[in-house]
Amino acid sequence: MRTQVAIIGAGPAGLLLSHILHRNGIDSVVLERQTRAHVLERIRAGVLEAGTIALLREVGLGERMDREGHPHDGSWIAWEGRPRFLIDTRKYTGKPMMAYGQTAITEDLFAARDAAGGKIVDEAADVRLHELTSSKPYVTYEKGGEQVRIDCDYVAGCDGYHGVSRPSIPLDVMKTYDKGYPFGWLGIMSETPPYPDICYCYHSRGFALASQRSPMLSRYYIQCDLDDKIDDWPDERFWAEFLARCPPDMAGSIVTGPSIEKSIAPLRSFVAEPMRYGRLFLAGDAAHIVPPTGAKGLNLAVSDVFYLSRALIEACRKGNPAYLDSYSDTALRRVWGAARMSWWLTMLLHRFPNETPFEEQMRLNQFDYLHASEHAAATLAEQYVGLPY
Ligand code: APR
Ligand code: PHB
């Protein structure tokens, strides 16, 4: 088989890249390790930055998002014993935000690729990348007991944190930055009307977050211990803990109900650089992970794909490699910005084990400063809505 761009991974990064390339007359094949059903079952975040919304509209993927997504003017921080604070993205940036789940975006992308006859190979086993520093790279995989080879001009590594692309880069040309946090997020989905706002709660019992997917689908999270298991958290215990961490008026208006999904995820920050090795280009979680506080993961995958699609289009159509050469630096500038914002918001909103009273005061003062200073409020709003591409 031959294609111009071999794309590894059918998450939002790989599918969106393949969609944009197709709109620009560039052929690609997407190789996905899992079944499509498995990919669509994964529940991830759902807050879209202004740039993500604009890009999805521009590439013809805005129709369902505009119909079913919930536009909003910012998110709230509810701090124990303090007045509530709005991250007022409309006031400070004038830009829109949207609650629309990653699962729905992935469905929209599959539908668009199917309608265009796009080639997505699922259950592609043992994907391997070859000759990445030559002008003729190729990719091999196994399906149904057969070995397949795809010759290509470029390889896009969109296969997430556990993929094969990043480990295909020799360790001596890659630098990685890693930071773990001493807690996880326990998340549930419930078929109940959501709390009207996205609200981050800081409480001495720990962090909690109310979010939303649709008029009858809510998403809630609480900070939990790293070694907690799902079985430790039956619904009754989850709700009791969640409600205890919200301000009383908020707790009074939350509609609880049985969970239809429940999972625990550890929090971490990770960045690999450069995001290029020869003809391999990394995008999305393959190159970086941010903690979910601030919901930057999906938005970063989209901005990477914006830069990478532009670069591949210039290279394939005009033979101009300039944007490919600057891809890693350009993408990483935005990645580090989001990494810092997610880290900062994580530090602000969580309880850390063995914290000193001094550290608690520093956190409290950070929050009071947000309330007191237009500049501080504007800085957070600008980052929350997403820095421009
Ligand atoms: N071969 C083929 N496919 C693979 C391989 C492999 N060796 N390893 C992983 N994959 C697939 C995964 O099954 C997954 O479908 O690559 C895809 C990567 O998708 P995501 O993990 O969703 O990553 P990405 O597209 O970069 O999207 C980033 O997803 O994890 C969230 O918070 C993150 O919202 C962010 C977004
Ligand atoms: C979500 O809706 O899943 C969500 C919202 C905001 C976040 C993280 C996740 O910061």
Oligomeric nature of the chains: single chain
**Helix fraction bin:** 25-40%
Radius of gyration: 21 Å
Task: State the low-pLDDT regions, or none.
Answer: none
DSSP, total strands: 20
Strand content: 25-35%
Short description:
The chain is an alpha+beta fold and 389 residues long.
Task: Explain what this protein looks like in three dimensions.
The chain is of the alpha+beta class. The chain has two domains: 5-52 and 61-68 and 101-178 and 268-347, FAD/NAD(P)-binding domain (3-Layer(bba) Sandwich); 181-267 and 351-385, D-Amino Acid Oxidase, Chain A, domain 2. It contains twelve helices and 20 strands. Strands 6-5-14-15-16-13-17-20 form an eight-stranded mixed β-sheet. Strands 8-2-1-12-19-18 form a six-stranded mixed β-sheet, covered by helices on one side. A three-stranded antiparallel β-sheet has the order 3-7-4. The model has no long low-confidence stretch (mean pLDDT 97). P-hydroxybenzoic acid binds at residues 45-47, 198, 211, 219, 292-295.
